[in-house]
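Dear colleagues,

I hope this message finds you well. In preparation for our joint manuscript, I am sending the GTP-binding protein EngB (Candidatus Methanocrinis natronophilus) sequence together with its predicted structure, so that both groups work from identical material. I would be grateful if you could confirm receipt.
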Amino acid sequence: MGDERSMAPEIVLIGRSNVGKSTLFRHLTGKKVRVGRRPGVTVSPARVRLGNTVYVDMPGYGFMRGADRISQERTKDFIVGYFEEKVEEILLAIQVIDAGSFIEIADRWEGRGEVPLEVELFEFLSDLDLAVVVAANKMDRVDDPDKTLDGICELLGMLPPWRQWRDNIAPITAKKGEIEPLREVIKSTLQRRGG
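The corresponding structure tokens are as follows:
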């Protein structure tokens, strides 16, 4: 008989370092994981089982102050491998972004002729045929929420207005516990799955 834990459907949180993944994970699961004051502290996935579902907080990716390029690449390779290996078990991928800086960072990458990491990750998860919701975190720092969320949609290849994508875009402020739009997506995903 196989490991029962590995057979449970997973809801996986993924995102750049320092976007609030671990804070969001704590709000979703009620379990505190090691959260650091600096990016890149979560170095291996944290796993919490709630009912029949396992929530997974993946390590942050992208630039990490104090981490060399090899460590950053190793983290990226680990994340890609995890999703490819677990694709059948992943019920929902929650891609956490910093809504306040997302468009600026994406514009900077595109200005260099590169695909922004967040866009690349979203496309990768979508190509795996996973259900993906973008948790647009730190909405309390955004001056014009609709304009920002429309811009995020456009960068991710979804036609604005963002409100037609409520199963794919969830505006939240994890630090303040304002995560209801994401809870709704999770709830409907679990209901569809019968969990």
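For the figure legend, we might mention the following. The longest strand covers residues 90-98. Confidence is low (pLDDT under 50) at residues 1-5.

With kind regards,
E.M.
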